[in-house]
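Lab manual, section 2.4: Encoding a predicted structure.

Procedure: take the sequence of the chain (217 residues), apply the prediction step described in section 2.3, and record the output as structure tokens. A sample record is shown.
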Amino acid sequence: MAGSEGAYEPEAGPGRDTGSDAGFGEGAGRRARSRTRSSGSPSSSRAEKGEPRDPVEQARNICLRLLTGTPRTRKQLADALRKREIPDEAAEEVLSRFEDVGLIDDAAFADAWVESRHHGRGLARRALVRELRTKGVDSAVIDEAVGQLDSEQEEATARELVARKLRSTRGLDRDKRLRRLAGMLARKGYGEGMALRVVRQALEEEGEDTEGLDEPF
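Recorded output:
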């Protein structure tokens, strides 16, 4: 039938009107008008883009795209699937399967995160714990990951951070230097006691009088 030709065409443009068969195969003008009248529902839009209708397959494709080049935690992927309105059962099936084959590994993610963020950004254990919690990593996994940093390593990193920042504070009065340097360490998760001790030693090495700097900043 000429008037219904193309009624089962898989593609008729991203915004075709899915509620009527009358416009198919009757010329580009009518198809264009149909596209402008309706943008289509989210599900029909996904179908027109060639995405699978099976929720498990959709979940699998979403997770693979998100994991390309960037490790992610199970919670991050679960949140992404929920945002895409993937049913919970389908999401759970895919996430569990990905864990079984090692595509999701929160422990490895946490270890790599601690290594990168401590050595790259100088973050202390407190800040690293806070970041990993926001990414949904289990508390036991976090504790094990940050456990690779001991107090000596943390203090050594704090000293390196202060040494790099020290020059830019020269010319300021002592108290302002203290606040700026200690504040920088605090923002990176270092405790008040360690920050004060490290900054005081750095200022002493530059000849600053540090009397009275034992009080909290």
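Check your result against the sample. The chain has four domains: 2-48, 55-100, 106-146, 152-205.
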